[in-house]
Amino acid sequence: MAPKHMQNVVILPREEDVAVNLAGYVAGLSEKTILEKGSFSVVLSGGTLIDTLRKLTQCPYKETVNWSKWLIFWVDERVVPLDNPDSNYLLAWNGFLSKVPIPKHNIYHIHYSPSSEVVAKDYEVRLRRLVEQKVLPLSSTGFPQFDLMLLGIGPDGHVASLFPNRPQRYDVTDWVTFINDSPKPPPKRITFTFPVINSATYIAMVVTDKEEADAVAITLEHIPVKPPLPCSEVQAEVLLTWFLDKDAASKLPPNCKK
Ligand SMILES: O=C1O[C@H](COP(=O)(O)O)[C@@H](O)[C@H](O)[C@H]1O
What we know:
This protein is an alpha/beta fold. The protein has a single domain, classed as Rossmann fold, CATH 3.40.50. 26% of the residues lie in helices and 17% in strands. The chain contains 7 helices and 9 strands, in the order βαβααββααβββαβαβ. It has helices at 15-37, 49-52, 61-64, 88-95, 116-132, 194-197, 213-220, and strands at 7-12, 40-44, 70-74, 76-78, 148-151, 176-179, 189-192, 202-207, 239-245. Strands 1-9-8-5-2-3 form a 6-stranded parallel sheet. Strands 4-7-6 form a 3-stranded antiparallel sheet. β8 (202-207), α7 (213-220) and β9 (239-245) form a beta-alpha-beta unit. Belongs to the glucosamine/galactosamine-6-phosphate isomerase family. 6-phosphogluconolactonase subfamily. One of its GO terms (biological process) is carbohydrate metabolic process. This is Probable 6-phosphogluconolactonase. It comes from Sesamum alatum.
């Protein structure tokens, strides 16, 4: 296995190029992982990422990817009913999942309850059951290990629902935690903790907005800020790849943009 903290930065001219490149990357990983272990666990976030996944739902990938072996999870979810416009599940369903033949029983969305604590506990219990059933492996650090996490970031450097000035980002015990005062609406959310995120085999960090350019530059240029941006603490077991368009990369020094 490659040493921890391997990172790759891919900078492309337009969001459309990122979408094309990302689809090829995910399809390649899907093929390799299914050959090696018979399934492919993919963790989605919300936000602009879902639209950037659109090429996977088109030719040739719609036909060539072995969707029957995919398992879908969410790195974070808003604590709202699944048909609420704020739901990350609904966003993913409308933009991605409804267009590809992933078996419904392989789609692990939250079970809604008005209590974010109850939702987080339930999601963690279900993950623990999948580990017991050997559907998901455990990492060497004792956290579930997903094959691929597809993440985005916010302008404040948040990743999943781990925000700069909230304690959840420092949780090293739980697998899934909750927040009732998210600085970005809606306030109630659940989120994977950093030990789970950083146990993923592969992570794709997909950023295609000018608004996130400062957070990208602070992270990739190792500019010290207090507290450190959550997105700067993401690392993968094998490889973290940043997929950026020129807007997201616009605050990086010129030598990075070649
Ligand atoms: O609230 C959230 O925001 C982040 C970033 O979203 P974006 O629209 O700036 O791409 C997202 O990754 C997260 O899943 C979502 O709940």
